[in-house]
Amino acid sequence: MMLVTLASHSSLQILHGAKREGFKTSIVVNKEREGFYKRFGFIDDFQAYKNEDEAIELINRNPDSVFIPHGSLIEYMGMDRVSKIKTPIFGNRKLFPWESNQSKKMKLLELSNIKTPIKFENPEDVDRIVIVKLPGAKGGRGYFIARSKQEVKEGIKRVLDQGLVKNIDELIIQEYVIGIPMYFQFFYSPILKRVEMTGIDIRYETNVDGLRRLPLDVRVEPTFVVAGNIPAVARESILPKAYDYAENFIKTTKEMVPPGIIGPFCLESVVTENLDIITFEFSGRIVAGTNLYVDGSPYSWLYWDEPMSVGRRIAREIKLATQDGKLDEVTT
Fold first, then answer.
1. pTM score
2. What homologous superfamily does CATH list for 179-329?
């Protein structure tokens, strides 16, 4: 069997982990980036494409394979093209439309009894600092902070004029929660019937994380484009609540989007001064912050006592499922 992924995001980690677990590996790569990926000896097969439609054709060309999605898939290919993938996908492909809709994403979190920021349906209702978000996994591009209802209206007009969204209903207006950002990475195993924490990261965003270097009298509007990731380890007393959230989320997705979460997911959160966890978003696939832990995080070692990246953990789950004749339980 061959494991295939799209070149971007966490593809190197995914294929490195697949090779460690003994799988053949294949990458679907834009011709302009093919030279970069050929630097790595753990990639067996290169399928170069010129356009997005050709990329989907290449993914479907592998009969005895499993395709591993990541955060760039829908952003690069678009939901319409992704829906045409016929190759078995590791994870729950039914979650993709939920992830591309901010309101549906928040609904899953709220139904899971996970604390979330206050949401404003109408700019006129804004009475505090808020962050306005665009749909889909855009890596923070286009997000903006507003301190008043007037700034919200001005920002919305700006993103509409730029064509980043087609109408205001695509946006979500959330309270800007003050605290430490912590992105809790988990993995749900249908084979082992357990949830594992695989790591924690903090997103390094430009230019909001560069503003601290400016003199206090220089005012620059923050932006939130993710450029990298920083590792984090949480105070141990925080972890039980994070696990409660994860287990609630798994249960809710099983009910609302069966068969529910399969494999990696991330609860993107802020930890407040009261050590409360407020979750403002989720990712239903592997997140780029897991690239920090190619040899495993402090948490994955507690489960496996061996180097276990999330990429390798995906391959291990596929291997266990194949050995038990349960591949259909981890693919859709």
1. 0.90
2. ATP-grasp fold, B domain (3.30.470.20)
